[in-house]
Write a structure and sequence with these properties.
Helix content: 10-25%
Number of strands: 12
Low-confidence stretches: none
Mean pLDDT: 96
CATH superfamily: Dihydrofolate Reductase, subunit A
Radius of gyration: 15 Å
Distance between the termini: 14 Å
Strand content: 25-35%
Length: 162
Amino acid sequence: MKIVVAVDNNWAIGNKNQLLVSIPNDHKNFRRLTIGKVVVLGRKTLETFPQGQPLNGRTNIILSRDESYKAGDAIIVHSVDELLEKVKAYNTDDVYIIGGDSIYKQFLPYCDEAIVTKVDHEYEADAYFPNLDEDSEWKIVDESDDETYFDLDYKFVTYKKK
């Protein structure tokens, strides 16, 4: 499985259930990576999407403790074990963990690649992703050139588990 995440300089990912920043090229990259694939996310993350609906063109698997939770055509699971069992039906290279912070932390041990958009800024935040630069299990295998959106510099960095 893979992770897709955008972080700031402190590895922050969100504040008050919202992304820290919206960069069109980051969204384009996210779509390119995940279209036609499986995305795994938590209920709270889904509720931040337009009309709280699953992403089109992807198989959405939502982790929620609420046994009665429904979300369009998404597959709903209620535990890490149930989710891991469900994704066995798919090629693991086609499964992307997309948030939020508790989902990232629960599934990072099961992932072998992380595609990280690193935004060169520090935001006010209340949600964080584990700092892969400080984790000896992970190494950078690819890095894009710096890109700029208005006054923000960012780059795409791919990490692989050693």
